[in-house]
Amino acid sequence: MTPNQTDRIATQVINFLVLIVVLILFFLLGDIILSGFPHISWHFLTSPSSSFSAGGGIRDQLFNSLYLLVLTLIISFPLALGSAIYLSEYAGNNWRTGLIRTAIEVLSSLPSVVVGLFGYLLFVIEFHMGFSILSGAIALTFFNLPLLVRSIEGSLHAVPDSQREAGISLGLSNWRTIRGIILPAALPGILTGIILSAGRVFGEAAALIYTAGQSAPILNYSNWNPTDSSSFLNPMRPAETLAVHIWKVNTEGVTPDAVSISAGASAVLIIVILLFNFGARAIGNHMYKKMTGGK
Amino acid sequence: METYDLSQNHIVTPPEEIALSTNQLQVYYGSGSRASMTDASLSFPRFQITALIGASGSGKSTYLRSLNRMNDRIARIEGEIMYRGTNINSPKVNVYEVRKHIGMVFQKPNPFAKSISENITFALKAAGITNRQELNERVETSLKEAALWNEVKDDLNKSALALSGGQQQRLCIARALAMKPDILLLDEPASALDPISTTKLEVTLKELTKNYTIIIVTHNMQQASRISAYTAFFHLGHVIEYDQTEKIFQTPEIQATHDYVTGNFG
């Protein structure tokens, strides 16, 4: 065989492998969206779910998912940002840094069911927080932290060292350089990381079944008092999310239209996650262009 | 490679007013006991350009970066750096203040991912200058000093990253000048630039000697002979020869210097 032929065969094999990956993705997405899309309607998105009769919607579940996401990010982002700045800017290359990195690796590989049960025992039972959005948000923080720390650290690391030197050489302190120069330069990457991790959080179910609970009490969207139990803002109320809802109607659902509800809800879930992904890309590109003057 | 007697050296003290001098400066990287820079004792004349030349790994950049304590985090530096009668290598000295007096420009242009004017005002604001008028004035003055004003005066709010390499480097010089330093350290500032940008940069540097003392590391011997008044030749962590540039390039005292400037080195 000539080198030319070998190369052609290798290229074809590689192209074929890539094609399989892309096909699997499109098959999955296509199937979910095509079978779910007909069930999505304004009514479906804006009415509460019903337990026994047909025609229930996913309004509260969709809101719960978003609210849980916001709470999770409020808890996990500051923690992740601090850890990432430490790892990228301050940590020396020693055993302590190695330990921290290993801890983060292990945290990211914990099975979600285990984290859910842990959250159930510790927050729900031990700390008397009950099935609540807050318990769920803390459990989700466990997943979100390693992803966020790694993506933020990566973005900080991608800022060239010459930027740090420039700051230091102008008489700026280390912290001032990080805050004023490194963080803004890393911002597009950090935002992308947040949005991508949000997709993961949005779709999580196993960890929430035992922490945020599986019930969706009727919410009052005009009650803005977060301490009131019927308020949509109350973080201590149980909250079934979209992903949990899908799991539930499929396992114990008794509504006659369970199949179409789960198909519709799955499609909504996938669409929202796709929006997160495209949004991440668009925002990242936009900010990069803005910073580099379109170059 | 020929080995030279590193203890043999010829170092003059310029008769002019001295802006900065080092006394027996030694630099150790890591925890090693082997000095990367040995007993460097040099005096830099005020309002002149001094060039530091030598092969890669000769210690000239290490030496330069020690002068405004940029190596603090990665190296241990012994010896004295005398500036205005103070040893600025003392741990008691405020390094942030030192770096405001002794500015630095690096090998690769490193403008911040900010607008042109923000590149200059950021450190000024951090230093406590908030008066809008004064900030604008410093932006204009420093850009004029760096010979960049005419090219960018209508684009001050555009991103600095959209400038060409040569313009970026002059912006970095303007950024350093805006702090109103005494001394400017340049670490191979032209090595990433094309010949036209390099010429512009050299003209700019010569202009700057009216108000600033400049110490420049360069690989380019023509550059050193074109712009500097004094030249120091570094070899393997030792200062071998330091004299007027003309002498270094035409009648050096030491064999190693002669071999290096004539290209018969290594």
Automatic annotation (TrEMBL), chain A:
Annotated ranges, domain ABC transmembrane type-1: 62-280
Alphabetic keyword roster: Cell membrane, Membrane, Transmembrane, Transmembrane helix, Transport
GO biological process annotation, one example: phosphate ion transmembrane transport
Gene Ontology molecular function: phosphate transmembrane transporter activity
Subcellular location: Cell membrane
TM ranges: 12-45, 65-87, 99-123, 129-149, 181-202, 258-280
CDD domains attached to this UniProt entry: TM_PBP2 (cd06261)
Principal subcellular localisation of the protein: membrane
Membrane topology: Multi-pass membrane protein
InterPro entries, sorted: MetI-like (IPR000515), MetI-like_sf (IPR035906), Phosphate_PstA (IPR005672)
Keyword Transport: yes
GO cellular component: plasma membrane
Pfam families, sorted: BPD_transp_1
UniProt family annotation: Belongs to the binding-protein-dependent transport system permease family. CysTW subfamily.
PANTHER family (alphabetical): ABC TRANSPORTER PERMEASE PROTEIN YQGI-RELATED (PTHR43470:SF4), PHOSPHATE TRANSPORT SYSTEM PERMEASE PROTEIN PSTA-RELATED (PTHR43470)
Protein name: Phosphate transport system permease protein PstA
Organism: Secundilactobacillus silagincola
Automatic annotation (TrEMBL), chain B:
Residues annotated as transmembrane: none
Coiled coil: none
Gene Ontology CC: one annotated term: membrane
One function term, GO molecular function aspect: ATP hydrolysis activity
Segments forming domain ABC transporter: 20-261
Protein keywords: ATP-binding, Cell membrane, Membrane, Nucleotide-binding, Phosphate transport, Translocase, Transport
Name under which the protein is recorded: Phosphate ABC transporter ATP-binding protein
Pfam families attached to this UniProt entry: ABC_tran (PF00005)
One example of a Gene Ontology biological process annotation: phosphate ion transmembrane transport
InterPro entries on file: AAA+_ATPase, ABC_transporter-like_ATP-bd, ABC_transporter-like_CS, P-loop_NTPase, PstB-like
Record organism: Secundilactobacillus silagincola
Entry superkingdom: Bacteria
